[in-house]
Design a protein that fits this description.
This protein is of the alpha/beta class. The protein has three domains: 137 residues; 185 residues, P-loop containing nucleotide triphosphate hydrolases (Rossmann fold, 3-Layer(aba) Sandwich); 104 residues, no CATH class. It contains 18 helices and 17 strands. The strands form five sheets. A five-stranded mixed beta sheet has the order 1-4-5-6-7. Strands 12-13-16-11-17 form a five-stranded parallel beta sheet. A three-stranded antiparallel beta sheet has the order 9-8-10, with no helix packed on it. β8 and β9 form a beta hairpin. α6 runs antiparallel to α8 and α14 crosses α15. It is globular and about 85 Å long. The N and C termini lie far apart (70 Å).
Length: 494
């Protein structure tokens, strides 16, 4: 190896590639003194290309952070032309990451060089007809696209080319659109300190989810012994009666861990297979299924481990084989790795997708599907939990979702008001939000800062409120109502 004592196999790979292209290079011959955080240090980049005046720093895909990256950026600021090369065979110039980077071949002198433009003049012979692209830095070096690297993609590009070329012209654009959204090495959603703190706060709002909480944090506790901190858990099933908080918990959980890459699908409409696995090309309304849709969001890299919420899974048509077969495929990692969307038509790696199933009666779910879930039964709330935890939590979400002007309504509800809400909704959480929406409509319609929630809570009080609204001239009634409201402890600090 030319007597070089390389420090990693990755440096060997890049050395061999530069040798194959005939690009003159030297290994660790440049030593640059610099000051990092007030401390003098010496930095030795991996390769120097003297003919191009170029410095190359080689690192894996992920470790481009910390002091190593700080030194590399400092080198670029000192006037050096620095090329960042990764373990994927990709490359780009430090300080110019927004621009493309290429390896070109001069047609006149047949020498290779790195450039930010496809219309570059050869730095060796000054020929201005250089357009012969060898490698695209954003795509990487094709020789490195081994089977192992292809596994990191969501699908096999060669398979796409074979199928795409057989399509009719009217289907190609839609097919190409899905391809462009899924191509490239996908990102992995991962845990962070802030995310874990948000999950702790979420579980405090759902006191009947203690078992689910213990499960998730047992998964998080294993992060130090796993290779990465990616969000990954076995499919879970939350069973409970209507109003126990299953759906609202799952949706809030999805917003926290997956942001744009989470979706809820209703399974009670009898079109499970089409909704999840897409519809066949050729129909006017054909489209890809929810699995692929959740993996990508416009303008962002695809995500390999999104979250799918399967609502009312117990109401699927059990007599429809297709409805169950799609779950048999997706809920097993081995078969999910080659999941084929009916519209896209190419096996896609869906083995990292996370699932939360919701149901009211698990006895209506086939045993073969139940065996693929980790099952949790969610009990109903106690009266105390509804009053002290659930109602304040729903009110907080309502203020945020409705974008309520906090100068016009209380930030927190008093115990008295929470008791009145509890009585009016008859202990059913689903009735709370409609009550709050009624309040908002009436409250803002009257443009009042004096009248309060009390107007909602009984038929008589609501009738009196409407009377006040449309007959403001009745001073006696108005004064009486004001007195009642002002004497009510309707707001308190938590």
């Amino acid at each position: 190896m030319d007597n070089y004592d390389f420090r990693s196999s990755l440096e060997v790979n890049w050395h061999e590639e530069l040798e194959k292209l005939g690009i003159e290079h030297q290994y660790e011959t440049l030593k640059v003194s610099m000051k990092i955080d007030g401390v003098e240090t010496t930095y030795t980049p991996d390769f120097v290309l003297p003919a191009q005046g170029l410095v190359i720093e080689v690192k894996g895909s992920h470790p481009w952070e910390g002091k190593s990256m700080q030194k590399t950026r400092m080198l670029a600021k000192m006037g050096y032309s620095v090329l960042k090369c990764t373990g994927e065979g990709k490359f780009n110039f430090i300080g110019n990451e927004s621009s493309s980077c290429f390896i070109l071949k001069c047609p006149a002198c047949s020498r290779h060089f790195f450039s930010c433009s496809l219309d570059e003049t050869c730095p060796f012979c000054s020929d201005d007809t250089v357009k012969d692209l060898v490698y695209d830095g954003s795509e990487g070096i094709s020789a490195w696209r081994t089977r192992k690297e292809l596994d990191r993609w969501l699908f096999d590009k060669e398979a796409f080319d074979r199928i795409h070329n057989t399509l009719r012209s009217e289907s190609r654009d839609a097919h190409q659109n899905v391809y462009e959204k899924l191509c490239g090495v996908p990102q992995m959603l991962s845990y962070s300190y802030d995310l874990i703190e948000k999950l702790k706060s979420l579980f405090r709002k759902y006191p009947n989810m203690k078992e689910v909480e213990r499960f998730f944090f047992s998964v998080i506790d294993t992060l130090p012994v796993r290779k990465d901190q990616t969000i990954s858990f076995p499919p879970i099933l939350l069973e409970g009666s209507p109003g126990c908080g299953k759906t609202s918990f799952a949706m809030e959980f999805g917003k926290i861990v997956a942001e744009k890459n989470h979706r809820k699908i209703e399974l009670s409409n009898g079109v499970v297979n089409f909704a999840i696995a897409g519809s066949e090309r050729g129909f006017n309304n054909s489209e890809t299924g929810i699995i692929l849709k959740t993996m990508f969001s416009d303008g962002f890299s695809p995500v390999k481990n999104p979250l799918i919420i399967l609502d009312e899974i117990d109401k699927c048509q059990r007599d429809t084989y297709a409805s169950e077969s799609v779950f048999h495929t997706l809920l097993e990692k081995r078969s999910a790795k080659v999941f084929t969307d009916n519209f896209f038509g190419i096996p896609v790696d869906a083995s990292k997708v996370n699932y939360i199933g919701l149901c009211n009666d698990s006895t209506r779910i086939s045993r073969s599907i139940m065996d693929r879930f980790k099952h949790f039964y969610i009990r109903d709330y106690t009266r105390k939990e509804l009053r002290d935890t659930v109602i304040p939590g729903i009110y907080e979400n309502w203020l945020h979702d409705e974008q309520v002007n906090l100068a016009r309504v209380p930030r927190h509800l008093s115990r008295e008001i929470r008791e009145k809400i509890l009585k009016l909704c008859n202990g059913k959480p689903r009735k709370i939000v409609p009550l709050l929406n009624d309040f908002l409509r009436i409250y803002l319609h009257n443009d009042s800062t004096t009248y309060t929630f009390i107007s909602l809570f009984t038929t008589r009080e609501r009738k009196n409120w409407k009377s006040l609204c449309y007959q403001p001239a009745e001073e006696t009634a108005c004064d009486t109502e004001k007195s009642l409201l002002l004497d009510t402890a309707w707001m308190e600090e938590p």
